[in-house]
C-alpha cells in the first residue's frame, strides 16, 4: 500500500508470476496508491471504499459480481491488451463502471508475432533447430524442405488493428491477402495492403496457403475453426492462431494434423494455457507452440502500462477515457 492521498487502484500483486510487471511498479506508484488483492481480501472494510480503479494485468485480478459489489467507489476497470473475453461487460456496466483496454499498444508486436509464427511454421524453423543441434546429427539432407512464403496466399480471419498490421507485413512478402471480417474495410484500406474481402469464410479457407486467426473470442467465434472448416483447407495449408485458444476445436486440429488434412499449425494461444504436459499437441513435429507472446516486448508492455495510467487518471478526474470500451 502506497500514498494514501493518491487514487486507490486494485492490482493482483506487486511481484511474482501473477503480479503486475515489477519494472512498472515505481511508475504506477507515482500516480496511484496500489492495493494488492491480498491486502483487499484481508481487510475489505478498510480498502473497499478507497479503490477507484482495477488494474488488470495478465487477466488478473478476476472480476465478478462479488468483487464489484464490494468496491463502492469503483469508476473504471483498466485491462492490459486488446482481448475482453475475461470480462463480463454487461455486468460491469450494470454497476456504472467503465472499461478501458490498450488495443493500439499491442497491434505491432502481435502482428510481428503472427508473421514470426507463419515463417517459423512455413520454413520448419523449430524442427530445423532440433536437427541442427541434435547430438546424433551427422549430415544435413538436401531434401529437407519447407513451404515458400513469398507469393503465397494468406487468409486473415479478423481485420482489426492487428489483422491490418499483419496484412501490411504480408504485402512486403508479396503475399496475396484475403480476409474475412464482420465488417468490410474501406476500399482505400484494402488497396493500401492489396487485400481482397471474402464474405464467405469457406471461400477463404479453400483458397489460402496460410490461415491466420486474429479475431476476438466471443460466443460467436468460439470454435470458429472445427473439423468441417479444417477439411476445407488445402492439405498443404498451415493454420496460425494468435487470437485465443478457444477459437479452434483443438481435438479436431489434432486429428487434422495427425492425418494430413492440413500441413501444420503455429499456435501462440491454446486452451488451457499452458497445455497439460501430456497433451498430444506437444508431441507433434508439425506444430510450433509459443507461450502467448503476442505483446511480450519491453516496449509494448510499457506502452500498455502508460495507456492504462492515462485511462485511469482520466476516469477518476471525470474526463473522457482514452480507449474506453463501449457496449455494442
TrEMBL record:
KW Oxidoreductase (keyword) present: yes
GO CC terms of this entry: cytosol
Alphabetical keyword list: Oxidoreductase
PROSITE patterns, alphabetized: D_2_HYDROXYACID_DH_3
D-isomer specific 2-hydroxyacid dehydrogenase catalytic domain segment(s): 25-325
InterPro entries linked to this entry: D-isomer_2-hydroxyacid_DH, D-isomer_2_OHA_DH_cat_dom, D-isomer_DH_CS, D-isomer_DH_NAD-bd, NAD(P)-bd_dom_sf
Gene3D superfamilies: NAD(P)-binding Rossmann-like Domain
One example GO MF annotation: NAD binding
Domain D-isomer specific 2-hydroxyacid dehydrogenase NAD-binding: 115-294
Family, per entry: Belongs to the D-isomer specific 2-hydroxyacid dehydrogenase family.
Name of this chain's protein: Glyoxylate reductase/hydroxypyruvate reductase
Protein's organism: Callorhinus ursinus (Northern fur seal)
The organism's taxonomic lineage, starting at the top: Eukaryota, Metazoa, Chordata, Craniata, Vertebrata
Amino acid at each position: 500500500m502506497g500514498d494514501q492521498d493518491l487514487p486507490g487502484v486494485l492490482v493482483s500483486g506487486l511481484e511474482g508470476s501473477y503480479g503486475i510487471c515489477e519494472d512498472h511498479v515505481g511508475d504506477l506508484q507515482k500516480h496511484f496508491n496500489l492495493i494488492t488483492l491480498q491486502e483487499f481480501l484481508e481487510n475489505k472494510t478498510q480498502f473497499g471504499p478507497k479503490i477507484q480503479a482495477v488494474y488488470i494485468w495478465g487477466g488478473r485480478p478476476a472480476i465478478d459480481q462479488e468483487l464489484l459489489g464490494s468496491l463502492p467507489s469503483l469508476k473504471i476497470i483498466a485491462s492490459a491488451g486488446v482481448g475482453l473475453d475475461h470480462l463480463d461487460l454487461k455486468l460491469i456496466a450494470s454497476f456504472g463502471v467503465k472499461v478501458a483496454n490498450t488495443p493500439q499498444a499491442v497491434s505491432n508486436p502481435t502482428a510481428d508475432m503472427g508473421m514470426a509464427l507463419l515463417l517459423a511454421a512455413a520454413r520448419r524453423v523449430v524442427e530445423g533447430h532440433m536437427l541442427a543441434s541434435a547430438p546424433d546429427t551427422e549430415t544435413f539432407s538436401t531434401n529437407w524442405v519447407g513451404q515458400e512464403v513469398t507469393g503465397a496466399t494468406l487468409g486473415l480471419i479478423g481485420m482489426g488493428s492487428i489483422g491490418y498490421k499483419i496484412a501490411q507485413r504480408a504485402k512486403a512478402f508479396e503475399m496475396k491477402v484475403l480476409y474475412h471480417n464482420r465488417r468490410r474495410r474501406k476500399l482505400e484500406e484494402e488497396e493500401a495492403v492489396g487485400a481482397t474481402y471474402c464474405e464467405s469464410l469457406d471461400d477463404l479457407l479453400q483458397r489460402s496457403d496460410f490461415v491466420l486467426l486474429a479475431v476476438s473470442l466471443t460466443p460467436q467465434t468460439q470454435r470458429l475453426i472445427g473439423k468441417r472448416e479444417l477439411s476445407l483447407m488445402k492439405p498443404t495449408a498451415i493454420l496460425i492462431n494468435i487470437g485465443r485458444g478457444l477459437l479452434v476445436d483443438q481435438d479436431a486440429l489434432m486429428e487434422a494434423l495427425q492425418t494430413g488434412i492440413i500441413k501444420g499449425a503455429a499456435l501462440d494461444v491454446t486452451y488451457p494455457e499452458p497445455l497439460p504436459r501430456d497433451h498430444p499437441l506437444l508431441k507433434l513435429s508439425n506444430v510450433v507452440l509459443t507461450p502467448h507472446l503476442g505483446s511480450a516486448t519491453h516496449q509494448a508492455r510499457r506502452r500498455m502500462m502508460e495507456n492504462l495510467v492515462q485511462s485511469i487518471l482520466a476516469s477518476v478526474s471525470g474526463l473522457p477515457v482514452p480507449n474506453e470500451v463501449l457496449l455494442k
